[in-house]
Amino acid sequence: MSTPLALATRTPLEDAHAQLAAAVAHLGYGEGLHRMLATARRELTVSVPLRRDDGSVAVYVGHRVQHNLSRGPAKGGLRFSPAVDLDEVRALAMWMTWKCALVDVPYGGAKGGIAIDPRAHSTAELERVTRRYTSEILPIIGPDIDIPAPDIGTDEQTMAWMMDTYSVNVGHTVPGVVTGKPISLGGSLGRASSTSRGVAHVSILALRHRRIRVDQATAVVQGFGKVGRDAARFLAEAGIRVQAVSDVDGAVYSATGLDVPALIRHAERTGSVVGFPDAEPLDPAELLLLDVDLLVPAAIEGVITAENASQVKARVIVEGANGPTTQDADAILAERDVFVVPDILANSGGVIVSYFEWVQANQAYRWTEDEVTLRLSERITAAWNAVLAYAERRSLTLRQAATALAVERVTEAHRLRGLYP
Which pLDDT does position 300 carry in this prediction? Predict the structure, then answer.
């Protein structure tokens, strides 16, 4: 049967709204509450002019969306990507609300982005863009208001510039205004790899739940950036045979398993996984369809769609990226009994350790990396157990259960706080 074009063209925001609508229907909430949960609390779009190194001036558009503040200050990443638009940021902010509630950290959801290609700019230009963007959104961020973190196209240096710009404007150093900072500026030990560590931890839980031996499992990782790279490393360290990985430039494959540490060194040296001598080149689209036990989409949203979901052969999918599976693909995968661990659970390690970093900044006290890793493991395992039990009691998929449980927790905060005035 051919797939209608409309099924393949849903936006991330449409998927986010569809997931919320399903959770609201399951929970029996009224239309007024549904509209409140679907509508962002605050949105800011700003112009970001840049004086380029050659003296010319370029102008970019930036956004910051705060979806919900009922459970605490807003929390969410900042991405630099040409694909950034307001609807994408709205979707990511909504997913962040559910993620924070699901792992029980006292935040609401936010997200930010600038429509810019960081690879086309010098470090000096990226610093000027970051500082100008920060100054433009200054009125709505702060350690008790909205705490940005790194995302696609940004890193700990970006967060250092943001923290410094905010601190200079308020007249004193405020380490808690961002997370994902360099260690020497108050960042948390273990933060850089926390999302990846959480993805690997949940992957092992999911494989065991499906009675797949971890030491005999095979996996592929789509994306080799700040999430996929370390996720592949942690999976390989656990004894899982990582057969293929991809990045924005291409993909590589080895039936006997990639030497992940060597591949990381190659990518650091050349800037891409392409050309790794101990592997075969692979069409990146084919990576998603390889016959493996575990698929980890860890790049961008909307890569598993109604057009390719029926061809996915992996028995378990653990979403390292935000929104990699469309709503229509989800239904196809569920029908085929593919076990999907949703993004708001699978990649929550980053926000969990961001919360730990924020706590450490507020206490002016640093935890050891072992403490951070142990607390991450405890919290993400508790969330896994809660979602799995919720799904089994109500005969839901993990995504349906995770979203409903998170929406339920956010709604409880709304109910307790009341509606002002």
Answer: 83
